[in-house]
């Protein structure tokens, strides 16, 4: 090297650098060569990204079986939601390869639909789904979150109807017949006697896990949908400030403050929240089918103490369920094998064997309607006091409301959750606690939320220029 | 004059720096200007919108909320943190204080801890069943044992966390500055009958002013770049009612969640302009001192 440098007449000699200096140079050269020579690992077959560990545990065996006797081979990678979102969108937006198949959670899909329709990174599956009769096999509302501007970009993984989970041991000991409750107003009245220091630890214990925070935005949307409200209508027009939405916000805020308070902040997927549930500091929770699986895994000590019932309706005779969460599988445009990816997607999402495994391992019911009469959905659940949980969810599945697939849905949900927080704070400051007293404020806050989201919608030149 | 080196030798020698500078600084900065006049959906789809991003920004309530929050945080940092840092520095500069080196290390050590770790730690402390509520309820039984700090005291929580992290760091600057204070002048002032406060105002403050104004500028720049601490402490959001939304957090949301790199660039340039204003003010103050 010294010889090579000397040909440029540079005054380089052994003494130009100290021993340490030469060592650093040598290490730099060696490590550069090492990096260049490092073999890049390439998997054969299709790459599939998922975000959910329980889903992954189920897919592991299914994929092992598939790989033994089918092609193409599938390689599964589990990523956190945020990491997947970043890598997926970075790949989509720069036309660089990501995975061949990606399972995406509902909250991370609006960003995929924000730009021009031709720039959506997933393959448009509308033609395949309709041509192969899959569209008629699947519960229609399950397609909505994965559709944009009339095109379907993914196979739905689930239906996710919601029920109410309650501590049957506590309610039955108190002589309260909760399943006979029909409406939310009735619910608030019936449970109120249980508010108080139930654990003798000098703090007030409330009833239902519900709070005005960003973490509650999905549940808030679910309750708005259940009430017949929405943030966007089916044609994507915004409808945030409506009478129904304001009624939901005012009612929820009235449950969070004042003498009639029944709600408490017991976050899901959180040790604090789970401890509150175990200690009986919160007795009721909104429960989509997937959350049953999470609770069984995270809070096994509640086994046999819980029961499920349909959600109380917002008005007599109203809808007794809603929808929270969801996932889809999509084929990326950069895949080299779209046919193979389609074959795999159908196997994982539409096969009966996997539908059963999905229910047994995750508590999730399949969106394929023809499986809904299968016996495995009738097996009593020990965790939920012997109730046939699958059958109960299936009975409600046809009634789930249709959700929007607006690219601005996440922003809208954030703003409406913020509006709920502000209504709650207003109630706290003014001492106005009843839903009637809070209606005007709820409208005011929803108007503000609508203005902010509307400006964001109007600013988007890509969507503005499309029909 | 012939130096003995080929004429191209200097260019080769500065080439590595130039390559890095052009690739990672000059080009991104210029390209961000181009982006600021476009609306983008990632790097692939873009439309020229001229000054629309800046016009939208002027009337964007969330941006102004973020600006207000950032100013409050900056004011909290400068008005609480820096006097405290100076106080600690003066205390630890005093010969009579025993174990000065140990305390310097103790006060400086939070600056060595990662911001994300600090955010997680303060998040746990400020949670409903966290150490703060536990301690306050233990000391004063009337205190709400489940006080929602991260709902009602968002900016205060952020300022406190930053205070813990940086008070010792800024203390080191002030300690160095205090070495410039002339002992003779201070003693002469004492002989002339000047008390501690007049000595502080007329001897210490003029001596440390150049470094103090530099520390103020650094703190302001740091405050205006607040991101990780708030982002992690508030669970990847601006917190309830956007009480903790900062300018850089909003820039991140727009650029890397909504993928509107154009609008994010516009926010970045406005932030840069704000920081430039502070830098100019600091420069003016320094020049006035020199005059």
Walkthrough of the structure:
The complex is a heterodimer of chains A (467) and B (291). By secondary structure, chain A is of the alpha/beta class. Chain A is built from 18 helices and 12 strands. Chain A is globular, with a radius of gyration of 27 Å. In chain A, 46% of the residues are buried. In chain B, helix 3 packs antiparallel against helix 10, helix 10 runs antiparallel to helix 13 and helix 12 packs antiparallel against helix 13. Chain B has helices spanning 9-36, 52-58, 61-93, 100-108, 115-126, 131-139, 149-152, 154-178, 183-191, 196-224, 228-233, 247-257, 261-290; strands at 38-41, 45-48. Chain B starts with 8 loop residues before the first helix and ends with a helix. With 291 residues, chain B is mainly alpha-helical. Chain B is globular, with a radius of gyration of 24 Å. Classes of the chains: A alpha/beta (467), B mainly alpha (291). The interface between A and B is large, with 36 and 37 residues.
Report the CATH superfamily of the largest domain in chain A. Periplasmic binding protein-like II
**Main β-sheet of chain A: number of strands, strand sense, barrel status?**
5 strands, mixed
Radius of gyration of chain A: 27 Å
SSE pattern of chain B, N- to C-terminal: HEEHHHHHHHHHHHH
Q: Spans of chain A of 5+ residues with little confidence (pLDDT < 50)?
A: none
Helix percent of chain B reads over 70%
For the record, the count of structural domains of chain A works out to: 2
Q: How many helices of chain A does DSSP assign?
A: 18
Number of strands of chain B: 2
Which whole number gives the mean pLDDT of chain B?
89
Which secondary-structure class do the elements of chain A indicate?
Answer: alpha/beta
The portion of residues forming beta strands of chain B comes to under 5%
What's the count of strands of chain A?
12
Helix content of chain A: 40-55%
Please mark out the parts of chain B with pLDDT under 50 across 5 or more consecutive residues, or reply none.
none
Q: Classify the oligomer.
A: heterodimer
Class per helix and strand makeup of chain B: mainly alpha
Compressed to H and E, one letter per element, the order of chain A equals HHEHEHEHHEEEEHHEHHEHEHEEHHHHHH
Report the biggest beta sheet of chain B as strand number plus sense, adding barrel if it closes.
2 strands, antiparallel
